[in-house]
Design a protein that fits this description.
about 280 residues, alpha+beta, Rossmann fold, Tumour Suppressor Smad4, 2 domains, six-stranded antiparallel sheet, about 35% strand, elongated
Length: about 280
């Protein structure tokens, strides 16, 4: 049985001419399919001036699909804002790598019509949640949580615990704790493994460790990760977006969040094809 989306929100981090052109094309396709369209404030200059920008709470309440136009940074942003609340997200790729964004602009009309008609597949991605000892606020990431020195060629020393079991004490530029979604991002550039998004795992990748014997570590995503810093100055970042300055004695706890991101893909989407095209596999 086909599922059809009735109300779709168009979103983007910016509003340059290329993004506006793509958004107008999306808008035309959706209106031709008798779909109600909501737009965020960045896209208020679309051709259909009768469609007013919607506030975040209206999109959360009414949209049953978010179409994010841009690169993976755009997808990461709207995944945290809307995907965390259970709204499915489809990405239109205007970036370079775009592991989260599926539809290329040259295939936009045909691919979007198919998705809106119910020809799509979905997969669920886990979020990461981080908190500091003594603080109630929880910080969200889809790709990775990173604790690092905040300076070039400067080490921090930390103790790593998994499920309260001591793993090691390490001197390094930092530590990347990544979801499978983030394994093709910053973790990969730090020497971490590519992990298929269907696996329930956490990837821990030290950044330029002082020890030659240290390797990335993959554990089940039910594990609770704890990082202890003793009298250290460091920075904690989430998806390379939000960051916190740390000082003194700090204890960071990281685990899988309860909510999952529901990614919508065209039916022909294939993870390994994406790896071949975006990472240059099989090239000579």
């Amino acid at each position: 049985m086909k599922k059809r989306f009735n109300t779709v929100a168009l979103c983007s981090n910016s509003a340059n001419e290329h993004i506006i052109a793509i958004a107008n094309q999306c808008l035309e396709v959706m209106l031709s399919q008798q779909i109600k369209v909501l737009i965020d404030s960045n896209l208020s200059n679309l051709d259909q001036r009768s469609i007013k920008a919607s506030k975040k709470q209206e999109i959360i309440k009414k949209a049953d699909l978010v179409v994010a136009i841009g690169g993976d940074g755009t997808m990461l942003n709207y995944s945290r804002v809307y995907g965390y609340r259970g709204i499915p997200i489809l990405g239109i790729n205007l970036g370079n790598l775009g592991f989260l964004t599926d539809i290329n602009p040259q295939d936009l009309t045909s691919s979007l019509v198919k998705v809106l008609d119910g020809e799509f597949k979905q997969d669920k991605r886990s979020f990461l949640e981080a908190s500091l000892k003594g603080k109630k606020k929880k910080h969200l990431a889809l790709n990775e949580v990173v604790v690092h020195s905040g300076s070039i060629a400067q080490l921090i020393e930390y103790d790593l615990f998994i499920n309260d079991s001591f793993v090691y004490r390490q001197k390094a530029d930092g530590l990347i704790i990544s979801s499978p979604t983030g394994s093709t991002g910053y973790s990969l550039s730090g020497g971490g493994p590519i992990v298929h998004p269907e696996l329930d795992a956490l990837i821990l990748t030290p950044m330029l460790p002082q020890s030659l014997s240290t390797s990335p570590l993959v554990v089940k995503d039910e594990c609770k990760v704890k990082i202890s810093l003793k009298n250290q100055e460091a920075t904690l970042s989430f998806d390379s977006h939000d960051s916190l300055k740390l000082s003194g004695d700090t204890e960071i706890k990281i685990s899988k969040a309860d909510s999952k991101l529901n990614l919508v893909h065209p039916k022909e989407h294939d993870f390994f094809e994406g790896c071949r095209n975006k990472l240059g596999w099989s090239t000579h």
